[in-house]
Design a protein that fits this description.
This protein has about 290 residues and is α+β, with helices and mostly antiparallel strands. About 30% of the residues lie in helices and about 30% in strands. The relative contact order is 0.15. Keywords: Pyridoxal phosphate.
Length: about 290
């Protein structure tokens, strides 16, 4: 199957897609992105992702060159072209400042904007059944509330993470748990979900987990979480668009709870999967008015 992307308003073969060597996203790392996946080949909470992208673009004075409706149609076209029937897709939407001026300035109305879609490949089943390990890194992302393309810390730690047999990198700062490199984190203590609320990206999957847990009568607290509190938690899990909900049984060299996948996390997994099933049925979880 020939692969395509949507680049600056056009559907283009990946083999022919090019970016300028003077793009400020390449020269200076000045770029934003969103990442999401499909269920029944429809993007999950697309409206929420696009709102977050627009908020970031406004903050950094980059114009998003397409309407939500046109972006939604472009995604549908890419999924149809790039992903085999009965398969799901992961989608990345990337926005940079476009061609650099004097190597460090840009024209807000002339961005580079492209969309990628490829077959979704979930993490190994063993992580959901037996839980995962996180490595710990003292680090605070710059502009944590936005998805910028600056992943230099996460990229540089991939080898260390894999050697440790870990699935994710947990960022901590000033004695507090922040977030993982590409996930949010929750702990469970006496049946209550607790998740960090400052200096983090407020993920869309995080939002759905909070919403569905509260609907189900599970208490949720959004507040500071100390590293020691994480180590003393009964359970922990991470949440992201591509990973969904993954139990955490070990952080660094510390076992979490009994070191096994436990009941509250299992219930949250079920609640989240039920929410994605509602997306299958055409409920308003996509949140885009076409």
């Amino acid at each position: 199957m020939s692969q395509h992307c949507f680049l600056n308003g056009k559907l283009v073969s990946l083999s022919k897609a090019t970016l300028s060597v003077h793009d400020i996203g390449v020269l200076r790392g000045f770029g934003l992105f969103e990442a999401l996946r499909t269920y029944k080949r429809k993007p999950f909470h697309l409206g929420d992702h696009l709102r977050r992208l627009k908020n970031a673009a406004e903050r950094f004075n980059i114009q998003v060159p397409m309407s939500d409706a046109k972006i939604a149609r472009a995604i549908d076209a890419l999924v149809a072209k790039n992903v085999s029937k009965n398969k799901e897709a992961n989608i990345r939407i990337i926005l940079t400042g476009g061609e650099a001026i004097h190597l460090i300035e840009f024209r807000p109305a002339h961005p580079t904007f492209y969309i990628l879609a490829e077959e979704f490949k979930p993490p190994l089943t063993q992580y959901y059944q037996s839980g995962c390990t996180l490595i710990v890194q003292e680090f605070q992302r710059q502009f944590p509330e936005y998805k910028t393309t600056n992943y230099i810390q996460a990229v540089s730690l991939q080898t260390k993470m894999k050697k440790a047999g870990a699935l994710e990198i947990l960022y901590v700062s000033d004695g507090l748990v922040r977030e993982c490199s590409a996930s949010n984190i929750f702990i469970v203590k006496r049946g209550v979900l607790v998740t960090p609320h400052k200096m983090i990206l407020e993920g869309i999957t995080r939002k759905v987990v909070i919403q569905e847990a509260r609907r189900a009568g599970i208490r949720v607290k959004e507040r500071d979480v100390s590293v020691q509190e994480l180590y003393n938690a009964d359970e922990a899990f991470i949440a992201s668009s591509f990973k969904e909900i993954v139990p955490v049984i070990k952080v660094g060299n510390r076992k979490i709870g009994n070191g096994k996948v436990s009941p509250t996390t299992t219930r949250v997994i079920d609640l989240f999967r039920a929410a994605t099933h509602l997306n299958h049925q055409g409920r308003t979880l996509i949140n885009v008015v076409l």
